[in-house]
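Reader question, answered in our methods column.
A reader sent in the components of a multi-part assembly and asked whether the whole thing could be modeled at once rather than chain by chain. We filled in our standard form and ran it. Here is what they sent:
COMPLEX SIZE: two components
ENTRIES:
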Amino acid sequence: MINLQSVRKVFQTKDGEVKAVDTVDLNIKQGEIYGIIGYSGAGKSTLIRILNMLERPTSGTVTIGGKNMSELSPKKLREARQEISMIFQHFNLLWSRTVRENIAFPLEIAGYPKAKIKQRVDELIDLVGLEGRGGSYPSQLSGGQKQRVGIARALANEPKVLLCDEATSALDPKTTDSILDLLVEINQKLDLTIVLITHEMHVIRKICHRVAVMEQGRVVEEGDVLNVFKNPTEPITKDFVKQVTEPEETVDTIKQFITEFPEGRIVQLTFIGGRAGQPLITELIRKYEVDVNILQGKITQTQNGPYGTLFIQIKGTESALARAMEFLNSVQVEVEVIHNA
Amino acid sequence: MLSTWFPNVQWDVLLEATKETLYMSAISVVITFFLGLALGLALFLTSPGNLWGNKFLNSVIAIIVNVFRSIPFIILIILLIPFTRLIVGTMLGAEAALPALIVGAAPFYARMVEIALREINKGVIEAAKSMGATNAQIIFKVLIPESTPALVSGITVTAIALVSYTAMAGVVGAGGLGNLAYMEGYQRDNADVTLISTALILVIVFVIQWIGDRITTSLDKR
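And here is the structure of the entire assembly that came back:
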């Protein structure tokens, strides 16, 4: 659906050249929710704007739905843009228009007749759950409601691709989740390809099928969300994965625990996919003569399956401990010994 | 009663002068609005990084606007005499004041339009672009509607400036309340005529301000 080949974007500044996007290749499939994560300044905002040519790439090709975007005439580009919608961090609604009029805006641009606009706006208001708010002005809405208007507006022209520019970064966690649920819903209902950029791993984890990690204009790591969670190779990716798998206080808690109770072994178990649901600890205690003390754990749902980490303390005789470790290594769980008394 | 307090005021003449002032102000405000809007849009759109970003064109328009905005109005009237003669045919009467009024006020309003347009959130323009809007659609569906409160309060200020310009134009033969105050009031030493002309101009100004404020408030949905 979307194909990027060695896309580069170089800005000329007083301090010389800045490579905002540096030789990026991407391939995004039809119907996929594709996440691009990076810290601010990583080039992800520029990259997403290159997709609909709000920024022209310095070199490289962008193909969406078979069209080479940078070679389209201005008129063809405007037509193509009607099929590639965008939602924004700060919503970018027209304050002078009501909710209904905002949603009607892209339809007016596309030249729909009035009656058709009215009918389509009604459908969209229902789809995004804004019944009864059609006559309100944006200033009378909450952040989450504004983003719903943004989404309805973006869907008005029945696009094939939806670009989300930090669409949830200005929202509180609860509202973020409701907007993410809505995105998953429209992805499934309309078979819409969604490309989103974010700095929150939570967003990637919750709705993306695949993820690309960006650093200094380059895509440093890319793949299925679950695989990236399982085997993050780059340090930056490990940082992002930690955002959702490890509660912030984990390291401190474990350290504290080790100083107070220095016996046995402290082990970090990482469950991926189906394994997260199996009664591993029960088996461990029943089969081997060890005591297990659960210190901390978290299971996270991703679009490709569950992912979890569990910190346990195992106590027992040397031989029992060795056999227990052997067992853990034999099942499909990643084991990392953090402390060995 | 009135004649004891204002012995030298001829009421029919006063009424006629008020009508002339209102006529000159109204016509010049309407034309200034459209001309200033066009100039202001041109200033905004040709500025670097904008829809028609063009440094050369932008500086040409900016120079024209700045020059005409800087010439004192009373001098502008004199400078424009040949031009006025050419298009109106005379230097006397309310019509003859219009070219100078418009040439003086439109650049002033254009700057206010430019400021109003700059206040618009860039993201909204970007959103319209991302929907495939043409430049004309961006101008008429985004830029102008999103800046209406500022455009209206700007034209209110301009209209008030125009009322005072009409008074100056009156001195060089355009008629109206300014002319009355100068010719009948000052030159003939009739202080009551000057006073009542001033009072009427104040009333006109207050009414314009009141209407402008009302419209601005009702349009602003932010």
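What stands out: Chain B touches chain A through 21 residues (CB under 8 Å). Chain B has a mean pLDDT of 90.
Send us your own complexes using the same form.
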